[in-house]
Amino acid sequence: MLPRLLSRFAWVAVGGLFIFSGLIKLNDPVGTAIKLEEYFEVFSSDFSPVFLVFKPYALYLSIFLSTLEVVLGVALLVRWRLKTVLWSLFFLTLFFTFLTFYSAYFNKVTDCGCFGDAIKLTPWQSFGKDVALLVLLVVLLATQRHLLSFARMKGSTTGTIVLVTTVLSVGMGVYAYLHEPYLDFRAYRVGANIPKLMKPSAPLRYQYIMEKGGEEHIFDTYPTDTTFKFRKMVPQNPEDGPKITDFNVWNDQGDFTQELFLGNRLLVLVKDVSKADQESFKEINALLQGLEKNPSPKVVPVVITSSSSQDFDVFRHEVNLAAPYFFADATVLKTMIRANPGLLLFKNGVVVGKWHHNDVPTLQEVQKLVGN
After folding, report:
1. How far apart are CA 36 and CA 6, in angstroms?
2. Beta strands of the chain (E only): which ranges?
3. Where does it live in the cell (predicted)?
4. Distant-in-sequence, close-in-space partners of 272: CB < 8 Å, separation ≥ 6
5. Using one digit for the tens of pLDDT, what is the confidence trace for 95-153?
């Protein structure tokens, strides 16, 4: 009785977890691709430069691997080709376990991206999760006869379910790539108050690790005794720290970050001019012209890029982009929006609109969002 219950618990837990993990990644395939690129860069420097060959295909691998997780999870739950699916899940999890252990032990990739931006896990938490999955899969491999002992659907029906799951999963990933994620878990999602997120939610507390006479001492306040040697400072409540720490916008005249939080600002984000979709600027320019001709309510367009000033100056003339431009870190722009270009609408620092370049809003939409 106990082996049967254990087998069915592992069956539901493993299947459900793989489906959830895959769907979270398909929700934001560009974010998953960015994480894969990070792994390729680490492996290219630690093992072989050959891993850089995969970097241009990160997006395709993102959708493929995420789809594979969902399909294997569904296939397990409907018990389609059970033995093949179980071994596939085992070896896939074994591979992920190696990745997470390597990341944790050598402190290489601080977030594995197992559940995208929805659930952040430390490297060791990710490794522990994968070890637990391996244990459950070993249980399933040893007790799979119990999964075959109760009623199940016909093979043709389960095969159809797996096929439909595959098509829907690929379609979900492609659609999310061509637009923004269905669910936005990032700090710059619609409704986020950016200035507020740049401040701690409570006073930060620290412990001070000091050394004296070869012994380590911990203090809640910095000791006045100068014979103690400072080793490190450890935050006690990091969850209360700023959720956004790297949002800065500047040009040759200085920092303009705080100015973006005044009034209504339409941010046109161009991460990399060499990869930007130039055709979309026809609609973007039409929107900017409409804002200029209809100044009530006033919306100030601002272009932000991570390309060099020389490259962007050439680019803006090519696409006839007439708006003041500033610079920001490339990683920040990737976090703010997945599209290149993309648009964010600020109202006194609060994100009230967010669009992929395939979904450029109308003038009326923008005015409605910032209207009093």
Report:
1. 34
2. 206-212, 215-219, 229-235, 250-251, 254-255, 264-270, 300-305, 325-327, 342-347, 350-356
3. Membrane
4. 306, 307, 330, 340
5. 989 888 888 888 777 776 677 777 888 888 889 999 999 999 999 999 888 777 665 66
Please give the average per-residue pLDDT across 222-230, as a whole number.
89
Rounded distance, CA 91 to CA 107, Å? 24
233 near 269, Cβ under 8 Å? no
Angle between helical axes of 58-77 and 82-106 (0-180°, round to 10): 130
Strand partners, 327: 250, 305
CA dist., res. 297 & res. 101, Å (int): 54
Q: Which CATH superfamily is domain 250-370 in?
A: Glutaredoxin (3.40.30.10)
pLDDT at site 372: 58
d(CA 168, CA 164): 6
Residue 79 phi/psi, 5-degree rounding, is 60, 45
Phi, psi of 355 (to 5 degrees): -140, 140
Q: Which 8-state DSSP code applies to residue 360?
A: P
Give the burial string for 65-85 (b: 16+ CB within 10 Å, else e). bbbbbbbbbbbbbbbbebeeb
Helix, strand, coil percentages in the chain from 3-state DSSP, rounded to 5: 55, 15, 30
Angle, CA of 279, 282 and 286, to the nearest 5°: 160
Q: Residue 38: how many CB atoms within 10 A of its CB?
A: 19
Q: From edge to edge, which strands make up the β-sheet containing 350-356?
A: 254-255, 250-251, 325-327, 300-305, 264-270, 342-347, 350-356
Closest among 14, 364, 339 to 177, alpha carbons compared: 339
| Distance (Å) of CA 27 to CA 36, 55, 112, 310, 334 | 16, 20, 16, 35, 16
Q: Which amino acid is at 243?
A: K
Task: Provide CATH 3.40.30.10 ranges for the chain.
Answer: 250-370
Alpha carbons within 13 A on the beta-carbon side of 11: 22
Rounded Cα distance between 366 and 131, Å, is 49
206 vs 220: CA distance, rounded Å: 6
Tokens of 165: 């799951």
